[in-house]
Amino acid sequence: MFLPVKRWFAVAFLASAIAISQKAYAADNWKIIKVRGSDYLSVDNISQFYGLPAGMAASGEKVEFETVKNPLEFVSGSREVMINGARSWLCFPVIEQDGKYLVSRTDVAKTIEPLVRPHRVQNVGKVQTVVLDPGHGGYDRGQVSRFGYEKDFALDVARKLRPLLQAKGLRVIMTRESDYFVPLEVRAQIANAARDSIFVSIHFNATNDDPNATGFEIFSFTPRGAPSTSDSAVAPSALSTQPGSTVDAQSMALSACIYHSLLGHLPEFDRGIKRARFAVLRLTKVPAVLIEGGFLTEKGECKLIAQKDWRARLAHAIGVGIESYRALGIKKQPPLLVADYRKQIKSSPTDFVVPDAELKEADTSLMELVGKSKFLPAQQTSTPRASLESAPIVP
Ligand SMILES: [Zn+2]
């Protein structure tokens, strides 16, 4: 007997939710609520399923690591959500109906599940080769600050990161070794050709809209049928909901591991774990993320990025995040979170000592800069300038 299509998806969703759960959850653990033909789950239901307290912030309320109390903190009417102390962006806004807050089924499966339980993702952490992709190169300078070009900063971070990964026994391939341009599809092909590889693209940010915008963000590929984070929110009823690949969940797990390490190691503004259809993310068939390591258009942050010590810290934090991702496949335990890293760093401040007198001096001034830089409320979009991150692919 054939089930109607929508019914089939509901059954498939429940089946996968049960399969990934080690506890024997009955199918009625998920109570699907239909809203204008789309499937939603209540925040209470999600909280019960994961055994995690969930809070609901009012729209416009500031949600940050320092103030957030619950492992799951949703924002009414928004796509913004704090998961284990780091910001993330749902595909669809949380809606309210009959006094209940509802989250789209797509987001429970595609955003919440891999971020809450990355260690349960199928084939997670399977990595022998890390393909490091320093953004831009050659004639494509990327974004520009008065201290230099994005292409040079990105290459330097990758060069600093390579030996850290090699020391952990990982094979490292760089999509470019120096200042030349590599087509985006070639970068993806390099990752696709390597066995058990992950793809980590390194960029710096810029915006024309807001000279005060600062902070980190990380992207993985937008699930099929969903809008990207920078798109205006679209109702799920307007889109087809199709099951994604297992690589999608792995990419989210990789995003979470790297992002928590970045935020845990460096006192930067949390712009969040986001989704985009950047060419390099679309064309890679392996777990892939694109890191935006701060804004070249903000006067404090562009100075940080120009410091080689700061870039060494960035490389270190990304390296720890990659190692954390690999550990998921071995330990099958949740990864360290932003709070864990911050605790670790407090207890062993020597981690932060840079043995170069010249860099130490730069270091003092850069901590001042961090203190002074204006951390703005989270913004959903940074409106990147025309750049190759999102350039269409010419076949
Ligand atoms: Zn870039």
Strand order of the largest sheet: 12-9-13-16-14-15
Number of folding domains? 2
Order of helices and strands: HEEHEEEEEEHEEEHEHEEHEHEHHHH
Q: In DSSP terms, counting alpha (H) and pi (I) runs of 4 or more, how many helices?
A: 11
At CATH level 3, the topology of the largest domain is Aminopeptidase
Q: Regions with pLDDT < 50 over 5+ consecutive residues?
A: 1-15, 17-24, 350-395
Protein structure class: alpha/beta
Shape assignment: globular
CATH superfamily of the largest domain: Zn-dependent exopeptidases
> What is the arithmetic mean of pLDDT?
84
How many beta strands in the DSSP annotation?
16
- Beta-strand proportion: 15-25%
CATH class of the largest domain: Alpha Beta
Could you say what the CATH architecture of the largest domain is?
3-Layer(aba) Sandwich
Query: What is the first-to-last residue Cα distance?
Result: 43 Å
Which ligands occur here? Answer: zinc ion
SSE blueprint and pairings:
Blueprint: H1 5-20, E1 33-35, E2 38-42, H2 43-50, E3 54-57, E4 72-75, E5 80-83, E6 86-89, E7 95-97, E8 100-104, H3 105-116, E9 129-134, E10 144-145, E11 148-149, H4 150-167, E12 171-174, H5 184-193, E13 197-205, E14 216-221, H6 246-265, E15 270-276, H7 279-283, E16 288-295, H8 299-306, H9 308-331, H10 338-347, H11 357-372
Parallel strand pairs: 3-4, 9-12, 9-13, 13-16, 14-15
Antiparallel strand pairs: 1-2, 2-8, 4-5, 5-6, 7-8, 10-11, 14-16
The chain binds zinc ion.
